[in-house]
Structure formats: C-alpha cells, structure tokens
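FIELD: query
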Amino acid sequence: MKSFLRWLRRPLERARQAPVRRALEQQLSEHFKDTVQLVSAQTKGGYDEIYYAKRGQQRFAVVRVNSPHKQQNDPIGPLDPGVPLGAQERLEREWDAYQKLAPHQLSPQPIWRGDNAIACSWIDWERASRVLIQNRAQFWPLMEQIIPAIRAMHDADVIHLDLNLGNMLVAPNGKEIAIIDFEFGPVDWVSIPQQRAYDYLRIVDNCIKKRRGGKLLLKEPERLVRLLNENVDQATREASMAFSLEKLHLLAEQKSLLSLLRRVFPNL
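FIELD: result
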C-alpha cells in the first residue's frame, strides 16, 4: 500500500519540481556549453529528485536535486546508527564521498555542483540487487567483489550507513563495483569502528532476502565469514555492535549465522 501511494504522488512531485528542473537545464547547458535536458529517473524512494542529464540522445550524468516536494518518511529508531541528513548535508556528503572514491574507481565522478544540486558521471551499470534478481548464481562471485569494495571504501575514509545491494552498481564484467547514494549520516554516539562494522552487517542483512540470494548465503555461511576475515580491520572487528540487531531484523533471526559472524565481530 505504501509503495502504491508513493507511485500515485510521483507525477505531482515531478510537476511541482518542473520550474527547478528548467532552471537547472539552463545552468547545466551554460556550464557544459551544450544543450542539456533533464529526464526524471524512475525512482520511488530517496530524499531528493534524481534526473538523468542528456545531450541529444546520450545520457552523460546523474543529477541529484534538493526538492521540498519529495515526501519520504523512514522510521528512525533510538538505536539506529545512521539518520537521514538535511537537504544541503545530503549533497555535501555525496559530493565528498565521490571525490574520495572516484580516484579509486569506486564511485561515479563528481562533475558539477550548484546551490541545490550536484551532478556525477553516468555509469551504465546494473544495480547489484537487479543483477541477483536476474541471476542468483552470481551471488558468491558478486560477494567476492562487494566485501573488498567495502573495505576499500573505508580505507578511503568513507562510510555509507545505508549500504544495500541497491546502492551498488556492478560492471558488466562483474569485476568492478561503484557505490552510490550517500544520504545518511552518523548519530553522535556511534564511533567510526561501529559505523564501519555496521556497513558490513547491513549488507549481510540485505543479502539474507531470498530475492538477493539468501538461500545461497545461508547454505554456505562459512564463505561469508572467510571473506569478512580477509577484509575487516582489527578496530572494526572489536566494535561493540549489540545495538545493530535492533535495526537488522533479518540477521537477528538467523541465530546460527550470528554465531559464525561473532568469529569476526565478537561483540555482535
């Protein structure tokens, strides 16, 4: 029902945002010295309006635009380590993340910044969630790319806090990962090691879903533990993570998997 209501109000949200879209098209056209058209992305969630930027028939960028008309209401609990940021803070966090990750080929390139919008390069890759829906046999090869990519993201001084397979793009060869959609920031009481551990545990929780390859994960959980042991740094291992199970409901139900994960995160 929630998704249906969101689908119903999307045309109204886009219509109300149309004057901002037209102004941005002019700004981008002047900046890139070519006619730029913005086309709404078919996304239902998120806190900003997302557009594809086109020159002629070719997409070349994704534009994130603050929108007072975009309605989103994620329930935030007292033990959630990450919370949705304010409008300008979201743009700042995503721009900063891409500046740090793009040199390592872990994100799109940040290419333009305005008062209420940013643009990054268009990467024509599938989301990891979509890849697994189409072919769950790719689960373990994909995890062997995703877990090291999380470690590389952390080494670049970036933490996500809302990491799921929908926020990861996969190259056609399956050997490269780009991480997107940095909309959350940490609460005051959560430490850096706790935030990093939460990124790993959040992706595990997401992978338990059947559509994400959950049966394969639960059939061979030792493979996941091996991957984590190879990538998680010592400070992250030692983080106190009991609070995380209040949010990670699927993981909390998997007692045998939790037991194995405590080899990596003994304070889980």
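FIELD: remark
The two ends are 34 Å apart (CA to CA).
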